[in-house]
Amino acid sequence: MSSPTHEPWALILGASSGFGGATALELARSGFHIFGVHLDRRSTMSNVERIMDEIRAEKRQAVFFNINAADSEQRRKAADAMKDHVAGGAHVRVLLHSLAFGTLRSFVPESPEEAVTPKQMDMTLDVMAHSLVYWVQDLLYRALLSKGSRVFAMTSAGSTRVWPSYGPVSAAKAALESHIRQLANELAPKGIAVNAIRAGVTDTPALRKIPGSDVLLGGARERNPSGRLTTPEDVAKAIAALSDERAYWINGNVIGVDGAEDIVG
């Protein structure tokens, strides 16, 4: 492991693709060293290695953990390793929660065997919503989050809208936004700002797993007044801008990054 550094760090949960991967690279370009948490098998590790190489090409450190971000023991071990790595007063300036792993099942389909189960519902809420709270706890109690830190979490328009089979994820996004409000209120006295980022429809590996994703992509492309889909890079640049020290008073919001897509019916 490299020697500790006092320079700013960002922790990206879900760092190997999509919004997380793009944000890791954008923040590295903005001067951040990157902690990345991801869960990848050997077949997809080449993309992880590419992202790490690009971070290092910016003369930034890339310290990645291939773990289940929702596993409490693995989370605590990773947080301990991060604390050791930045020993000496440095802290995590930016935390991005971009975990997209959940169940896509209807609540009451025609066949009972195809209905979402309690275990699947609980897993989806735990990974895509509740894990944000637990990561914030573990970082805060290790003094890795402090005055000036920013916490972001990726939500979606699905938190308030209905799409076939999206129910468990929709519930998770709604819970995530509630957690954002609560954390913003509790962390404001410590000078830590917490916001949700609501991206427009974006062609990511996570979106491609949603049944009917082609319809979602086509509708968003036609509806967006900017004439195109949102990209991970659009979102990454917004997060980098919101991480600037001058944006300290932006707190407790759901911030749309969608080229005005959401205002069009």
Compact description:
With 265 residues, the chain is an alpha/beta fold. It has helices at 18-29, 45-57, 72-85, 118-140, 167-187, 205-208, 213-223, 232-242, and strands spanning 9-13, 33-38, 62-66, 92-97, 150-155, 193-199, 254-257. Helix 1 crosses helix 8, helix 3 packs parallel to helix 4 (118-140) and helix 4 (118-140) packs parallel to helix 5.
Fold and architecture overview:
This protein has 265 residues and is α/β, with parallel strands linked by helices. It has one domain: NAD(P)-binding Rossmann-like Domain (Rossmann fold). It is built from eight helices and seven strands. Strands 3-2-1-4-5-6-7 form a seven-stranded parallel β-sheet, sandwiched between helices.
Task: Write the topology of this structure.
Elements: E1 9-13, H1 18-29, E2 33-38, H2 45-57, E3 62-66, H3 72-85, E4 92-97, H4 118-140, E5 150-155, H5 167-187, E6 193-199, H6 205-208, H7 213-223, H8 232-242, E7 254-257
Parallel strand pairs: 1-2, 1-4, 2-3, 4-5, 5-6, 6-7
Key terms for this structure?
8 helices, alpha/beta, 7 strands, 15% strand, 41% helix, Rossmann fold, 265 residues, single chain, globular, 7-stranded parallel β-sheet
CATH superfamily: NAD(P)-binding Rossmann-like Domain
Largest sheet: 7 strands, parallel
Strand content: 5-15%
Number of helices: 8
Average pLDDT level: 93
Helicity, as a percent range: 40-55%
The CATH architecture term is 3-Layer(aba) Sandwich
What series of H and E elements makes up the topology?
EHEHEHEHEHEHHHE
- Uncertain regions spanning at least 5 consecutive residues: none
How many domains comprise the coordinates? 1
Give the overall form. globular
N-to-C span: 51 Å
Which structural class matches the secondary elements? alpha/beta
